Amino acid sequence: MIDLRLNGLPVQVEEGSTLLEAAGMYGIPIPTLCHMDGLSPYGACRLCVVEVGADGRSELVSACTYPAQDGLLVRTASRRVLRARRMVLELLLASCPQSKAIQDLAAAHDVRRQRFHQEHEDCILCGLCVRMCAEQMTGHAIGFQGRGEHRSIGTPYDARSAECKLCGGCIYVCPACSLRCTYTDPERAVCGGCANLAPPCLDKSQFHDMMCTMDPCVACEIG
Predict the structure, then answer these.
(1) What's the pTM?
(2) Integer angstrom CA distances of residue 143 from 40, 126, 164
(3) Which of 11, 34, 38, 75 could be stapled to 44 by a disulfide with Cβ–Cβ 3.0 to 4.6 Å?
(4) Per-residue pLDDT tens for 106-162?
């Protein structure tokens, strides 16, 4: 077993665990867009950054790829970490403002606007679809193409792949495919409807600290 300190608490995890897995075992939430149980870690979205090391000699690392080590000091919600996550969310909102998954994370992290030019891309290059196709569906029908700003995901030669099973797994895991209404005005870039800050389905006098448990969220159904 490996002993480390997570947000000041002494914890034990099995050897080979990542910091994301360690936090999950102890119920400490770390947001992520490119990670999914059953798929290999990729570390693309950078939302799962945590701070490791002591003050003055610490660094930000991706929790989904960083291995747990004996004596490691980890903070998952320091001021530096939260500032980095909000910046990442602003960039993701600029790239793909129509994504429900990104908007929900932005609302949860109190990001109400983004300061960058909106691109309305249809992909954030998280790699979930590529790994789902290869590792779970054994299709290997899609992959990354190009480099830098020209990097994209597609089939070889952009032709219909004979390996594609039309299973829909790539669409199922894609955070950019979970669409929601959005705006082009940066001041209204985050819907926040599903954050449900004033839940209409509960008696506040009895459940003042409860959020809506409806799926889909009933706040989104109210005009």
Answers:
(1) 0.77
(2) 15, 12, 12
(3) 34
(4) 999 989 888 888 888 889 999 999 999 999 999 999 999 998 888 999 988 888 888
Pick the closest to residue 83 from 116, 127, 51, 44 (CA basis): 51
Report if residue 205 sits inside a domain.
yes
CA distance 219 to 194: 6
Number of domains within the chain: 3
Cis peptide before 200 (omega within 30 of 0): no
Which of these, 173, 169, 161, lies nearest to 137 by C-alpha position?
A: 169
Separation between Cα atoms, residue 28 and residue 21, nearest integer Å: 10
85: in domain: no
* Residues sharing a CB contact under 8 Å with residue 140, sequence separation 6 or more, in sequence order: 133, 134, 163
Alpha-carbon span 62 to 57, nearest angstrom: 17
CB 218, CB 193: distance < 8 Å: no
